[in-house]
Design a protein that fits this description.
Blueprint: E1 6-9, E2 11-12, E3 24-25, H1 27-40, E4 43-44, H2 47-54, E5 64-71, H3 75-87, E6 92-95, H4 121-129, E7 133-136, H5 149-167, E8 173-175, H6 183-191, E9 196-201, E10 214-218, H7 225-232, H8 246-260
Parallel strand pairs: 1-5, 1-10, 2-3, 4-5, 5-6, 6-7, 8-9, 9-10
């Protein structure tokens, strides 16, 4: 099955807060990675084209790839958008609605650590108008697979409602916080009207991948040039779909146990 790199970024900044620094790339490195993508012959396409292919629609162009960004950091507007516009590149931005500034006075307490620099609702409208696909990333960024069903629904359906009410049009694309999901969570995401959802899995996606668990390659601060170059040629990672492993199931069981004991595993500190 043809490997489709779906690149996952968080912050693109030279001075990120310490908690997100391991998942941040500098503007210089990000620009270099876009050059590597172009030099490899990959063609960046909108996420919806991959989803359409996964749902039996038109096949993807050869050597396709997708850009995605999670959380909604302010540097997407100041640093990433100018590059995307200049190069004419599509991207999907998944935002955590409770962390966006400017609608209720301030970001919700406890969504992300103090000092996190997040987008405002006003900037979100500007990004939407610029052609960036806006997707949902829940309201408060929880580990959905450890929550009771009613709280999962509030997070996934509530996020959709907030974005659609504010932007004035439907939103279709969702991303699981931390990449964590389960069959029950995916059922709720589907019921809430999301037509695609991205995980992590540190793997390539493909036309045969599950559109409600799209595999992505997370670009981190320690992703070196050679590893990134290998990804652009379809190497150094498995290709989805593949079964959920025992390690993933065990990790979910451990986090659920801690949640039941009111000692939740803190994925973000």
């Amino acid at each position: 099955m043809t490997a489709v790199p779906v690149f996952l970024y968080h912050s693109v900044s030279s001075d990120p807060p310490s908690w997100i620094a391991p998942f941040t790339v500098s503007p210089r490195v990000f620009a270099e990675q876009l050059e590597t993508i172009a030099d490899s012959g990959l063609r960046l396409v909108p996420l919806r084209r991959l989803v359409a292919a996964q749902r039996g629609g038109p096949p993807l162009p050869a050597r396709s790839a997708v850009l995605t960004f999670d959380d909604g950091f302010a540097d997407f507007h100041s640093t990433v958008l100018p590059l995307l516009v200049r190069l004419g590149l599509p991207a999907t931005l998944y935002v955590t609605t409770g962390a966006l500034r400017g609608r209720a006075g301030a970001p919700a307490d406890g969504v992300f650590p103090p000092g996190s620099r997040m987008l405002s609702w006003r900037q979100l409208v500007a990004l939407d108008s610029s052609g960036v696909e806006i997707g949902g990333h829940t309201r408060t960024h929880p580990q959905l697979d450890t929550l009771p069903a009613h709280r999962v629904w509030d997070e996934v359906a509530g996020c959709a409602g907030e974005l659609e009410d504010f932007l004035g049009h439907p939103v279709d694309s969702f991303a699981y916080p931390h990449g964590y999901s389960s069959p029950a969570v995916r059922d709720q995401v589907r019921a809430a009207g999301w037509t695609s959802a991205t995980a992590v899995r540190d793997a390539f996606s493909s036309a045969g991948d599950d559109p409600l668990r799209i595999a992505r390659l997370m670009v981190r601060a320690d992703t070196d040039r050679d590893r990134f170059r290998q990804w652009t040629i379809g190497a150094a990672a498995p290709v989805a779909p593949f079964p959920e492993g025992a390690r993933t199931k065990g990790w979910r069981a451990y986090r659920r146990m801690r949640a039941r004991l009111n000692l939740p595993y803190r994925a973000v500190s």
